[in-house]
Amino acid sequence: MNAPIGRLADSLTLPQPYLLFLGDTTEAGYAKTAFGLADWAADRCVGELGVAGCTVSAGLPRLSPAEARAAGARSLVIGVANQGGVISESWVAALVEAMEAGLDIISGLHTRLTSVPALVEASRHTGQRLIDVRTPPPSIPIGNGRKRSGKRLLTVGTDCALGKKYTALALHRAFVARGIDADFRATGQTGIMIAGGGIPMDAVVSDFEAGAAEILSPDAPDDHWDLIEGQGSIFNPAYAAVSLGLLHGSQPDVFVVCHDPSRRVILGMESFALPSIEEVIDLTIRLGSRTNPAIRCGGVSLNTSSMGVGEAEALIGAERRRLGLPVADPIRGGAAFDALVENCLA
């Protein structure tokens, strides 16, 4: 399947390959768009570009806009997903330089590219396009809670930016490898760029969140699975509304909890402690059962990227025994991930 979704996907013909823009980012969690594209669409990325102060890298060659254009790039993608989704004043000169080098600008931020006068003027005299991806389709209905056919899996998290998209993509790849009819359903700007369609859930008016999730994952054959990219966390004081609307509208049969064991507080909100995995499982079942009484936890996805192999394997094993559920790092794969996949399908 993997058919584009609605009018958003129909209009989402992005100029490729990409130069990934990292801005002046110092926190890897705020460069998740760049990391996501580098990891899941590497064949569409030629390099990366940062400005003064940037300490983050997606592991690609550092190129100037002119060098990237000479290497075949057709657009610069803003690879930053910062708090509030804003375009920093310190980025503008580099974005203008990219347009003057012959690159279109693609953004998934809340701030519209067309709201920045210098970019509009550069677009006017260079002829390069300003492309905003974070645009929901028109005429989204309110949710109705009707039970839909087909099967659904939703990734949920203890926080933002810790692996929900990667987990859904890895599970989708594993399902397809097993011969299962499955779609990855993107709900954020990076996922949409990777998949070629989806709905940016955090750009949808709150009253229509559940309805957007319902049309994102419509009726399907009984043996079909939708692997739905989660957003935020129902424990996040800022973003819980998006997470709850997505949970109710997705009506997941199975959910996987995503967690970064190195994190102790909510990203960008250090006065709030991270919830435990058990708290997330309990509240997700209680809230999710409103639209799917049969909802269950398929297991736990740990982001162990900050750990060595031995430490990661020891933690995965300890958490599996403690929780009584499959626990794995989907990027590391192996037998632990196979067990997670099988339990989700059980």
UniProtKB/TrEMBL annotation:
InterPro entries in UniProt: DgcN-like, DgcN-like_C, DgcN-like_N, P-loop_NTPase
One Pfam family here: DUF1611
Start and end residues of each D-glutamate N-acetyltransferase-like C-terminal domain: 142-335
D-glutamate N-acetyltransferase-like N-terminal domain boundaries: 52-136
Protein name: EBNA-1 nuclear protein
Biological classification of the source: Bacteria, Pseudomonadati, Pseudomonadota, Alphaproteobacteria, Sphingomonadales
